[in-house]
C-alpha cells in the first residue's frame, strides 16, 4: 500500500472514514474526554479492505501506547462495527530524512483481541430461556442451561493501585471486607458516595475484581445507572420487564454506579426495588455509588432510601495533596513513566479535587513531551496545565497562605485572626506571618492588619521566633518545610 493513501485525504475510501466514525462513537462512551482528545482524535482512517480497517497514527510511540493500553477497547469496538472477523492494522508515520516531501510510513498489525475466559461468571438460566432467540437480557451470552455474563469490570481497577488516604480509608476498608465475604457482612448494601472523580468507580470495581479473584463461582456485574435505566426502557417497550428483573435477580454481586440518576426515573425505582429485595433476601451483595449522600437524594422513594440505610454508607472526600502525589506515582509506575519530582508536586498541587483530571493531566503531559520531543520540565507542565485548571496569572496572597496554614494545622480560619494566646493558634499565626513576609510583597504593617490589627513589631517578633525554632527544633523545622513546599507551589 503506497504513501499516497496516507497523505492524500481525497484518496481515503469513504467506507473507512464511516467505519472509524462509528468506532469513535463507541470509544467516546468508554473513556473520559481528555483521554479521547489526546489518544484517539489524532488517529485517521486510511483504508478498509474486507474486514481490515487501517488507521494512521503519528508515531511509533503512539502505536505502542494504543496497543498497550487500549487493545481490549479497540478489539471489542472493531468487532462490533465490522463483525467478529474485524481487525485493525496501523500505518505509522516515520521521521523523514529531510529530503522527502512526504513522511515515510510503515504498516504494523494490530493485536488480536481474544475475549477472556469468564469461567467464574456462569449462572443458572431458567429452562424457558434455552432458546437463544428468546433471550432479551443485557450482557448475556446464550448457552443451553447456563448463561455467561460479562462482568463489565475494568481489570485495571484493583485495590493494589487504589491509593489509601484519610479521604477514603473507611470506604476502602469496607470494600475489602465486602469482597472477602460478599453478602455475608452487615455492609449490605454498601453505598459509597462522594464527588465526581474522587475514586468511587475505581473502588467499587476493585471490589468486584477482588470478588472474582476470591470467589470464582460468583457472578459479578457492574452497571451504570444510566445503562440500567436505558435497558429497562428498552425491555418495557418490548413487554419484557419480567425477563429484565429475572436476569438481575441471578447476579451474586450487583454493583450499580451513580444511583442518583434514579431520582428522575420513578418507574426504574419500582423495578430496582423488586430486584433489591430479592437479592438482599437471597444473601446476595449489593454495592451502590452516588454523587450525594443517600439522605439528600430528593426524588428517591422512601422505601428505597430506608433500604440503603440497612447497610453501610461510606463517604469519599477529595484527595489531599499527599494522596494526589501518591496517585501520580502509582500511575507512573504502571505506565513506566518518569517525571521530575518538582513536576509531580506541581501537577498534584494544581489538580486538587478530581482523580480523573489528575490522570488526564499526566497522560497529556507525557503525550505532549513525546510527540513534540520536549523534555518534561516545569515550563512544559505549566503549558499543559493551562488546559486543565486556571493556573496562569495567579498571585499569592496573605489570605491564601492563611488558609494553607489553617488546613495544615486543622485550625479554623477565624481562630487564626482572633487575639488568643493558645499555643497552637499562636504558633500557626507566627508561621503564617513568616511566610507572608517571605513570599509576598506586603509591608509588615499590612501583614499585621490581616491578623486582626497586630502591629509591625508583632510580625518582626513572629518571624524571628520561627527562624529560632527552625534552628533548634528538628520536628518544627520538618513541619515548616512541608508547609513551605505548598506555599512555593502556589507561588509558581
Determine the N-to-C terminus distance: 50 Å
Computed over alpha carbons, the radius of gyration is: 28 Å
Strand content: 5-15%
The low-pLDDT segments are 1-10, 95-103, 113-136, 140-146
The major sheet is characterized as:
5 strands, parallel
Q: What sort of overall outline do the alpha carbons produce when their principal axes are compared?
A: globular
How would you write the strand order of the largest sheet? 9-10-11-8-12
By DSSP (H or I, 4+ residues per run), the number of helices equals 21
- SS-based structural class? alpha/beta
Residue share in helix: 40-55%
- Number of E-type strands: 12
Give the mean pLDDT.
79
Topology:
Elements: H1 3-7, H2 14-28, H3 33-40, E1 44-49, E2 52-57, H4 60-69, H5 71-82, E3 87-93, E4 105-109, E5 122-124, E6 140-141, E7 146-149, H6 169-180, E8 190-193, H7 200-214, E9 220-224, H8 225-237, H9 241-248, E10 253-257, H10 266-281, E11 285-290, H11 302-308, E12 312-315, H12 321-335, H13 341-350, H14 355-371, H15 378-385, H16 398-409, H17 413-417, H18 423-439, H19 444-449, H20 456-472, H21 474-491
Parallel strand pairs: 2-3, 8-11, 8-12, 9-10, 10-11
Antiparallel strand pairs: 1-2, 3-4, 5-7, 6-7
Architecture overview:
By secondary structure, this protein is of the alpha/beta class. It is 50% helix and 12% strand. The chain is built from 21 helices and twelve strands. The protein has helices at residues 3-7, 14-28, 33-40, 60-69, 71-82, 169-180, 200-214, 225-237, 241-248, 266-281, 302-308, 321-335, 341-350, 355-371, 378-385, 398-409, 413-417, 423-439, 444-449, 456-472, 474-491, and strands at 44-49, 52-57, 87-93, 105-109, 122-124, 140-141, 146-149, 190-193, 220-224, 253-257, 285-290, 312-315. The strands form three sheets. It has a five-stranded parallel beta sheet with strand order 9-10-11-8-12, sandwiched between helices. Helix 6 (169-180) packs parallel to helix 7 and helix 16 runs antiparallel to helix 18. It starts with a helix and ends with a helix.
Amino acid at each position: 500500500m503506497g504513501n499516497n493513501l496516507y497523505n492524500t485525504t481525497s484518496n481515503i475510501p469513504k467506507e473507512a472514514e464511516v467505519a472509524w466514525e462509528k468506532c469513535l462513537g463507541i470509544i467516546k462512551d468508554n473513556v473520559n474526554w481528555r483521554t479521547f482528545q489526546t489518544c484517539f482524535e489524532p488517529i485517521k482512517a486510511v483504508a478498509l479492505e474486507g474486514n481490515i480497517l487501517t488507521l494512521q497514527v503519528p508515531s511509533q510511540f503512539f502505536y505502542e501506547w494504543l496497543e498497550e493500553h487500549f487493545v481490549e477497547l479497540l478489539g471489542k469496538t472493531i468487532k462490533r462495527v465490522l463483525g467478529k472477523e474485524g481487525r485493525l492494522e496501523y500505518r505509522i508515520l516515520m521521521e523523514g530524512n529531510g529530503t522527502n516531501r512526504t513522511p515515510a510510513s510503515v504498516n504494523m498489525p494490530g493485536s488480536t483481541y481474544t475475549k477472556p475466559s469468564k469461567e467464574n461468571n456462569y449462572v443458572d438460566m431458567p429452562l424457558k430461556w434455552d432458546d437463544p432467540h428468546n433471550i432479551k437480557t443485557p450482557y448475556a451470552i446464550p448457552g443451553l442451561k447456563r448463561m455467561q455474563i460479562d462482568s463489565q469490570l475494568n481489570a485495571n481497577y484493583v485495590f493494589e493501585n487504589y491509593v489509601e488516604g484519610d479521604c477514603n480509608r473507611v470506604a476502602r476498608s469496607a470494600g475489602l471486607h465486602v469482597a472477602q465475604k460478599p453478602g455475608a457482612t452487615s455492609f449490605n448494601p454498601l453505598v459509597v458516595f462522594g464527588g465526581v472523580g474522587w475514586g468511587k468507580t475505581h473502588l467499587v470495581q476493585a471490589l468486584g475484581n477482588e470478588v472474582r479473584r476470591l470467589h470464582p463461582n460468583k457472578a459479578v456485574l457492574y452497571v451504570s445507572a444510566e445503562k440500567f435505566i436505558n435497558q429497562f426502557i428498552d425491555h418495557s417497550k418490548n413487554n419484557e420487564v419480567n425477563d429484565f428483573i429475572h436476569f438481575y435477580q441471578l447476579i451474586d454481586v450487583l454493583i450499580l454506579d451513580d444511583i442518583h440518576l434514579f431520582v428522575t426515573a420513578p418507574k426504574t425505582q419500582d423495578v430496582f426495588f423488586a430486584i433489591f429485595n430479592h437479592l438482599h433476601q437471597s444473601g446476595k451483595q449489593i454495592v451502590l455509588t452516588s454523587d450525594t449522600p443517600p439522605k439528600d437524594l430528593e426524588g428517591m422513594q422512601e422505601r428505597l432510601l430506608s433500604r440503603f440505610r440497612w447497610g453501610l454508607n461510606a463517604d469519599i472526600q477529595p484527595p489531599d495533596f499527599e494522596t494526589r502525589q501518591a496517585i501520580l506515582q502509582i500511575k507512573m509506575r504502571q505506565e513506566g513513566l518518569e517525571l521530575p519530582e518538582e513536576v509531580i508536586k506541581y501537577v498534584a498541587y494544581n489538580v486538587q479535587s478530581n482523580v480523573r483530571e489528575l490522570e488526564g493531566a499526566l497522560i497529556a503531559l507525557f503525550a505532549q513531551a513525546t510527540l513534540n520531543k520536549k523534555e518534561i520540565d516545569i515550563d512544559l507542565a505549566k503549558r499543559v496545565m493551562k488546559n486543565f485548571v486556571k493556573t496562569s496569572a495567579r498571585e499569592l496572597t496573605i489570605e491564601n497562605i492563611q488558609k494553607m496554614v489553617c488546613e495544615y494545622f486543622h485550625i479554623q480560619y477565624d481562630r487564626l485572626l482572633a487575639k488568643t494566646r493558645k499555643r497552637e493558634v499562636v504558633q500557626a499565626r507566627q508561621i503564617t506571618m513568616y511566610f507572608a513576609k517571605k513570599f509576598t510583597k506586603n509591608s509588615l504593617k499590612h501583614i499585621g492588619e490581616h491578623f486582626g490589627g497586630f502591629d509591625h513589631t508583632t510580625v518582626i517578633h513572629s518571624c524571628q521566633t520561627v527562624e529560632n525554632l527552625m534552628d533548634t527544633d528538628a520536628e518544627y523545622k520538618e513541619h515548616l518545610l512541608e508547609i513551605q513546599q505548598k506555599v512555593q507551589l502556589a507561588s509558581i
